[in-house]
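Re: the 160-residue chain
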Amino acid sequence: MSRDKISEWSATAASNTDVGGININEGCPPATINNAIREIMSQVKDFSTGYDNDDLTVGGNLTVDGTTTLTGVPTAPTAAASTNTTQIATTAFVQTKIGALGTMSTQAANAVAITGGTWTTAGTINSVNVTDIGTNATGTKTISSSAPSGGNDGDIWYQI
């Protein structure tokens, strides 16, 4: 079998009898060694640029100096929900943190609707004690200095 890319090389030196189809077995003609070295250099360059589409497996730590751009759809292990380190956070990990918090969007100049989940922020917003507001998982919570307008069953409006 012709060894046409780095991933096809063997960790057993004696098993590497050719490179890119060039004979490097014991007793090969000396003239083929120059071509074999050139082929190795070409394969290393193809590997370093990603041209050969070879996967890279790192068995230990990977250190990258400078700025690195990940392309495609990179994946990583998802940390436990209790993790609080500098490791990379996957979208799955972020979902464990935000879960059912709901969404927040500007409704009008004086109103912000917060929908879903539990409002857990402690403190006071314009004299409304946020810890007293509680939960309504499907309705809209609105704090506004304007009079209530519109809405649906289950919505809560706090006029301040």
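The longest helix spans residues 31-49.
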